[in-house]
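Subject: Sanity check before I submit

Could someone independently write out the structure tokens for this chain? I want to compare against mine line by line before I put it in a report. The sequence has 448 residues.
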Amino acid sequence: MVLGVLAAVAVGLWAWRRWHPASFWYGVAFPARAVLVVLTWHHVASGCKLTRRRRRWRLTLDAVPVVGPAARNAATVVEHKRRMRRVDVERAPRLGLLRPTRLGWYMRVRLHDGQVPADYERAAEGIAHAWRVHSVRVVDVKPGRVTLWATMRDPLTEVEVTPETGELLTVRPGKLENGRDWMIDFRTVPHWLNAGATQSGKSNLANAIIKGLAPQPLALVGFDLKGGVEFTPYAPRLSALATTRKECVDLLGDLVGELENRMGLCREQGARNVWNLPEGLRPVPIVLLIDEVAELFLMADRSEKDEVSRTGTALLRVAQLGRAFAVHLIVCGQRIGSDLGPGVTALRSQLSGRVCHRVNDPETANMTLGDMDPAALDAARAIPAETPGVAVVAGQDGSWHRARSVFVSEDEAERAARDHAHLTPAWDALIGTVPTTPTTPPALDDAA
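---
Independent answer below. Compare away.
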């Protein structure tokens, strides 16, 4: 009967885990894991060199030899006495309360005196192996405390999300390694640098962004120096498309002029940015997508030096002024290095959002993530070739995550561009006049 009961319980637990894994995790698996983590934390911390020796008062046993009355026999009696004295005690860092997540758990750890968050980053792999989990990350740092985030499995194996969010200038291109949605909010992080080698997922991320932005009341502008082969299929949703450097210079000149117009409008209305303007005067946001940014700065001979200089200066002005006046950049490239000139380095400093896919050379990874966090740089170099779409994402707050963009085929992106072609504002109307409504492009007003 006992064996039958145990078998029934085992089958019931298996069925519970099979058919409703979320409730099984919160009801059974996580409590068991929490008990295991608490009971083994001292040994794990000691093995990862996170413990510290402290002097503490303890009762100890002292052995005192006593010679018996029969001296001729030299009989020795050992007498034990307890004494209070200070001894060295190995203490593990204090754990906070374990809080479950859908993919694991997180907890705060109080640092010992002299410890820094880098000690826990170095020990993260050892802690993950001790806890039998996929990974352990230091995700939050506060004075004297760090937060460890443990994930049971890799959430980036399969990514299924919808890029459209329904919010202006917000896109959901994929998932983060902690299971949360990867959100790109251009109002929070206005400009993004997207680096990656061929077949790394860089173009797929651009497709996801285009699909997510296509239904929104904004203008998309494309710079495609591959002769237009990348962005031409999305031309129905693009207000302007430049395929040569000369066309890029002309479009950048128009954008700089539009920025000056918006600047004058904000000055007249006493607003610091376009979002403080009345709705009737707020201009249409503009998102500029640049493919292969290196082509804008490469020079075949000295005759192109002036053109490259004008391009870099105009692009830098757009990046510096764009946030306040709703003009945003997405700069993509396979090769981004300091050898392209000072213009690329200056532009990179204005792109606070960074996405680094698998790259062919360490210089590109260093240009993308090196000035933010060395650990992010190491994670980007470790991206395997068989995982296209996986990238290291660094935002404005300085934190970074592994992420993966959802697969969006070219046909899906083209269909989104065609279905929302009626939302495309005309370029001449966009840079010539200020729209009268914040959500309706000028093309719709003209049609009406």
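---
OP: Matches mine. For the report I'm noting this point. The CA atoms of residues 121 and 129 lie 14 Å apart.
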